[in-house]
Design goal:
- The complex is a heterotrimer.
- By secondary structure, chain A is an alpha+beta fold.
- Helices cover 37% and strands 23% of the residues of chain A.
- Chain A has 4 helices and 8 strands; from the N terminus they run αββββββααββα.
- A 6-stranded antiparallel sheet of chain A has the order 2-1-3-4-5-6, with helices on both faces.
- Chain B has one domain.
- Chain C has one domain.
- Chain C has 8 helices and 2 strands; from the N terminus they run H-H-H-H-H-H-H-E-E-H.
- At the A-C interface, helix 1 of A face helix 1, helix 4, helix 6 and helix 7 of C.
């Protein structure tokens, strides 16, 4: 058994003074750090290559499910990019698609467009709420809403994601949406019943959709006009 | 502008780094005994956060698009070295400032709040200014939590505590009550 | 004079007597931040265990080659590499858990417990002993996280590993899955540990057998 250890278990992280020893040449320091870095880099490239397909596939699947859900099962969809205040399907040459905003235009089996799936995010009760919603420009109605990420209070605010009654409120609502407290509804087509006890989170969801449509609505109209 | 204010206030109170994300707990437990020490620790934190924010933004914009898998390694190494270099510069240029921040600087480099700030800033794709607002909000939040805790602990010395509650146990329970109080800031920003 | 420890002591030391979270107060940030459910606690515990074990093996293998002037930077490089590997692997294999843990996976790098074990043990001992030490410390960390996670999930959701245990009449204490609950839970665990320690001391002083005493002292 080696007698090297002193089992110095409880000592804290504070760097202890190194024992006095002969000077280590600086090239050795550089070689140590350099080779550690090189090995680390190689290892990471290898793991990155191995895990990237699964990670990308999962992200694509999450997006596919979300678009399917809010557009009620489109046959296929196109990805449109927001460039210079308009929507384009073909990116101009030498434009990096990363970082550009995207909307998704879904089609029926017969090739008729269903509507657009649009993502958005704003501050809710606790932190940013990210969601995706479907929008039918023909009838100016929302076709569905799905919260992608939220940090709202469990059991109260997170009902915006988990409460199926609230989520269903958005199907077929006319825009711009108006939030009403429960029991105050008048039956108008643009009303969304807010969740009792989570008014701020509910209002945030409604505001995200309205704000996104204020920005993207004109672009969508212009795009459809051009396509016809 | 409103955007920057949101980021600042959110990091400072609504999602306070210490009381909502449990970051920087080591100094929170360790140096929150005296208000004066807590203030200096807070100042050193804000300083390091600023350096880290600038470094992280630079790396994320110019280097990491080509090698995303190096994010963590490059963040931690570059932040640590940048702090070390600034520390040496301050020591040379302003010995008074160095004495004020002094021993806290190296301690903070491995503080999880710094790495968290840089990581989240990169993940959310903050611009340079948004990153700075986030860093300062986080720093102000850490300082606020430290000073609040220190003021309570200074008074705690005159209280007769049951023997089993002495030490860390009571500090954690007080932190829990502070954290409850800070939950009241949620919903501060809504459209 | 350095105290010699046996492999058995190396293993059990980290598990209870010098538990990294509950006794040494290291690695508090993950222990509080991601322990709102049992599943998250286990995932965080295992990821940290993996990083600690791999780093200890590597550091102890090359301990004679690493000059002490750059040892901290080298350790951090090694740890950061394994954390990145854990991060990417978790995202590829269990994306939901990865999403729940979020940025706190990256924060394993600055978990002082891991760097502490490299500095205090792995850099001075043979590989087998470093492995035993890492396993002990890692198990201690997982136990502490599981304690936190179980208490918080049972009280906060009324479930354990997702299975309801109180029936439908139970009104969950949501505060326990929120940040204040983390502080309260560890505060009360520490209170209980202090109480237990003091009782043991008092009994030892009174000359009673320390454990298994049949008659509780009437207070």
């Amino acid at each position: 058994m080696s007698g090297a250890g002193d089992g110095n278990g409880g000592s804290r992280v504070l760097p202890q003074a190194a024992p006095q020893r002969e000077e280590v040449p600086s090239w050795r320091l550089l070689v140590t750090l350099g080779s550690t870095g090189a090995i680390a880099g190689l290892l990471l490239v290898f793991v990155y290559q191995a895990t990237q397909p699964a990670i990308q596939a999962y992200r694509a699947m999450v997006l596919r499910q979300a678009v399917q859900e809010v557009l009620k099962g489109p046959e296929r969809w196109d990805t449109l990019y927001v460039v210079d205040g308009g929507l384009v399907q073909e990116l101009p040459a030498e434009t990096d698609p990363a970082g550009l905003e995207m909307v998704f235009l879904g089609y029926h089996e017969d090739g008729q467009p269903i509507g657009f799936a649009i993502t958005g995010g704003e501050f809710g009760f606790q932190d940013i709420i990210d969601l995706i919603f479907g929008y039918d420009p023909g009838t100016k109605t929302v076709t569905g809403m799905k919260v992608l990420a939220n940090k709202e209070t469990p059991g109260l605010g997170d009902k915006i994601e988990k409460d199926s009654v609230f989520v269903a409120e958005f199907d077929g609502s006319e825009t711009p949406l108006v939030g009403v407290k429960s029991g105050r509804a008048t039956g108008a087509a643009n009303e969304v019943d807010m969740i009792t006890g989570a008014t701020i989170s509910s209002r945030a969801v409604i505001a995200i959709i309205n704000h996104r449509l204020e920005l993207l609505g004109p672009m969508i109209a212009a795009y459809l006009e051009e396509a016809n | 502008m409103g955007d920057l204010a949101w980021i600042f206030i959110s990091a400072m109170v609504v999602n306070n780094f210490t009381l909502a994300y449990f970051l920087g707990l080591c100094p929170f437990m360790g140096v929150s005994g005296k208000i004066y020490t807590a203030l200096r620790m807070g100042a050193a934190n804000i300083f390091v956060l600023t350096v880290a924010s600038v470094c992280a933004w630079f790396l994320d914009t110019f280097v990491l698009p080509y090698a995303p898998f190096l994010k963590l390694i490059s963040f931690i190494l570059v932040i640590a070295s940048a702090v070390q270099i600034t520390e040496m510069t301050i020591k040379k240029l302003s010995p008074a400032l160095f004495r004020a921040l002094g021993i806290y600087l190296p301690l903070i480099t491995t503080n999880c709040a710094i790495l968290f700030m840089a990581w989240v800033q990169a993940n959310r794709g903050y611009s340079f200014l948004q990153g700075l607002a986030f860093a300062w909000g986080a720093g102000a939040g850490l300082t606020l939590a430290l000073v609040l805790m220190a003021s309570i602990r200074e008074d705690l010395e005159f209280v007769k505590l049951p023997a089993i509650a002495r030490g860390n146990a009571i500090v954690f329970i007080i932190a829990g009550i502070l954290s409850l109080a800070f939950m009241g800031f949620a919903g501060l920003f809504t459209s | 004079m350095p105290r010699q420890t046996t492999p058995g002591q190396d293993l059990t030391r980290g598990i209870w007597r010098e538990n990294p979270v509950l006794i040494q107060m290291l690695g508090l940030c993950p222990a509080l931040a991601v322990t709102n459910t049992v599943v998250n606690s286990i995932a965080m515990g295992l990821a940290t265990f993996f990083v600690l074990l791999c780093s200890s093996i590597l550091v102890s293998t090359f301990r004679k080659l690493i000059p002490s002037e750059v040892r901290i930077s080298t350790y951090i490089l090694i740890i950061a590499t394994f954390v990145t590997i854990a991060d990417m692997t978790l995202e590829a294999v269990v994306p939901e858990v990865h999403k729940a843990l979020g940025a706190f996976i990256a924060l394993i790098v600055v978990n002082c417990m891991i760097l502490g074990r490299q500095e205090a043990f792995a850099s001075k001992n043979t590989v087998p002993r470093a492995i035993i030490d890492a396993v002990g410390t890692g198990i201690g960390f997982i136990i502490a996280l599981l304690m936190m996670g179980s208490i918080r999930e049972i009280l906060g959701y009324g479930t354990f590993l997702g299975f309801p245990i109180f029936g439908s009449n139970y009104e969950p204490w949501i505060v326990f899955i929120l940040p204040p609950g983390g502080f309260f839970t560890i505060g009360f665990i520490l209170l209980a540990l202090n109480w237990w320690e003091r009782r043991k001391l008092e009994r030892a002083r009174a000359g009673e057998p320390p454990a298994g005493a049949a008659v509780e002292r009437a207070a």
